[in-house]
Design a protein that fits this description.
mainly alpha; 50s Ribosomal Protein L17, Chain: A; three-stranded antiparallel sheet; 7 helices; about 55% helix; globular
């Protein structure tokens, strides 16, 4: 039974599976969009969201200069970096995670990624999808501000007589 066992095996040895997901998360953080199978995307999403959360939790501390941080704040940053480093082993992805991606999602409490299904792979018909980071509050704020302004305030509809409307419809039919 698989009770309380999180994660998928994907028919790979443990070391291969950990390296695969580490590389996928690093590619997602670097490129902000990757194309992979549905099963890999779902598991990569789980690991990427956890990693982004570690960076987001110390995002307010990272804005301060290193010499201005208290010992407790420095310890929190070191701990977050080490926890994220367990999953992401790529140095450039780590710097982007803590410098850009973490602060981008400061106001968001989860749901940093989206999976978009794109059909089947030509060779073996494996279900494929895009795994991408959603636009953050800082980068994609233009979309969120355009939606409310695009709506016009509701104006009360003018009452029309049902007899006039029925007469207009019957005249249009002739």
């Amino acid at each position: 039974m698989r009770h309380r066992r999180a994660g998928v095996h994907l028919s790979r040895p443990t070391a291969h599976r950990k390296a695969l997901f580490s590389n996928l998360v690093a590619a997602l953080l670097t490129n902000e969009r990757i194309r992979t199978t549905d099963a890999k995307a779902k598991e990569t999403r789980r690991l990427a969201e956890r990693t982004i959360t570690w960076a987001r939790r110390v995002g307010d501390i990272l804005v301060k200069k290193a010499d201005r941080r208290s010992e407790e704040e420095s310890a929190r940053v070191v701990h977050a970096v080490r926890m994220a480093r367990r999953i992401v082993r790529d140095r450039s992805a780590m710097t982007k995670l803590f410098d850009e991606i973490g602060p981008r999602f400061l106001a968001r409490r989860g749901g940093y990624t989206r999976i978009v299904k794109i059909g089947q792979r030509p060779g073996d018909a494996a279900p494929m999808s895009f795994l991408e980071l959603i636009p953050g509050e800082g980068g994609g704020s233009s979309q969120s501000t355009e939606k409310p302004s695009a709506k016009s305030p509701k104006t009360p509809a003018k009452p029309t007589s049902t007899k006039k409307a029925a007469a207009g419809q019957s005249a249009a039919r002739k």
